[in-house]
Amino acid sequence: MDARTYLTRCMPTRKQVDDFVNPAPGLPAEDNNSGWTFDSELGWVLKDSFRHDGVDRSRTYYHYEPSEARRHINFAGEPCRIHTYGNSFTHCDQVSDGETWQEYLAAHLQEPIGNYGVGGYGVYQAYLRMRRVESADPAEYVILNIWCDDHFRNLDAWRTIRFGQRTPCGFPLPHLRADLSSGRFSEMPNPTPSAEDVYKLLDADWVFATFAEDPMLACILAGQPAETAADVVPVTLGMPHAAMMGGEQADDGARQMARLALRSTQRVLEMTQEFLATQGSKLMVVLSHTSGVVGQALEHRPWWDQEFVDYLAGQSYPVIDLRDAHLADHACFNLPVGEYLQRFYIGHYAPAGNFFTALALKAPLVHWLDPGPKPYKGN
Fold first, then answer.
1. Is the pLDDT of residue 342 over 90?
2. pLDDT at site 379
3. Given a cut of 70, is residue 24 above it in pLDDT?
4. What is the pLDDT of residue 32?
5. Residue 258 has what pLDDT?
6. Maximum Cα–Cα distance for the chain, whole Å?
7. End-to-end alpha-carbon separation of the chain, Å?
8. Is the peptide bond before 371 cis (omega within 30 degrees of 0)?
9. Which pLDDT band, with edges at 50, 70 and 90, does 27 fall under?
């Protein structure tokens, strides 16, 4: 498939753009773009909505503070010294307000935790949101939660190029572009910085002129069967997916793409440290994973991101890898891996998975915070 044909199949409908640019609070999820809405700097943010994606086929409800953090349930209105950033595993998609790992922790630690996660973000977008929020309302403690695909998302100029037309946040976004000769990354702004610009996605000539030379597109076309339609492209385009599956299943192109993506996250972490140092804030990194990647760890298969894990081991900030927590927990059961994972996942974490995350983070947070949270003072 040539670049123009592929990009043409990626183009949204006018209704999709309308819903993205101006979703109306209170409308049913299917008429409200499930809450995703245009933001000139970050690509998108979230608005009040509900979705049909919860445990036992329930609806899930999403509401936001004036700061755009997800609604505080526990200790709302009290000073907040912990802010969290990342994608949907930080935002806690597929659970309602109050069922997030931040709220479980807030109830236990007796203090609020700010949830600034946004579904679909890469690490770079999360960093940009962190800069915006922390510049206005700095927190002493900042948690950056990184999920498997977030590394690759750093390199996306237009999410639909890699995901296909199947996500309400399949729009252009700020990103990093790699110089393969130097190994350096350049910060690139959102290609559609105004609402009017988003409508340019309906113009095939503009789309081709803007994205035909995109490095991610070249990677996709190199591994794309000629007959595959854009609306059925695998979630990580095949190449990163193969890289995350690891071992012999990953070809050289997939491994190179994974290495580039992981190194882009290392660069974002360097920028994050530099920024937080100017704010006088402390950083913790939490690694979240798909059920498949956790399953690989439980089966004692090689970790696809071992290079990145090794990099993190050399950093001064605390790092919590939820694979380690699942490995320790699974050892307490006599359950097949798949049956064990069903306890926690419904795609994203179910409420039980978010509670598991809260338990995994509890002790590290108590040790990290100074002064310690109220329930642990005097221990």
1. yes
2. 67
3. no
4. 78
5. 86
6. 66
7. 64
8. yes
9. low
- The predicted model gives 357-375 an average pLDDT of 97
Instruction: Work out the mean pLDDT of the chain and round it to a whole number.
Output: 90
> Shortest CA distance to 361 belongs to which of 100, 133, 121?
100
C-alpha distances (whole Å) from 20 to each of 25, 108, 198, 200, 378 are 12, 37, 9, 13, 50
195, two tokens: 């609402």
Structural fold of domain 3-376: Rossmann fold (3.40.50)
pLDDT tens, residue by residue, 199-229: 999 999 999 999 999 988 988 887 654 343 3
Burial 311-345 (b: 16+ CB within 10 A, else e): bbeeeebbbbbbbebbeebbeeeeeebeebbeebb
Residue identified by tokens 């290079």 is: 307
Residues whose CB is less than 8 angstroms from the CB of residue 329 and which lie 6 or more positions away in sequence, other chains included: 356
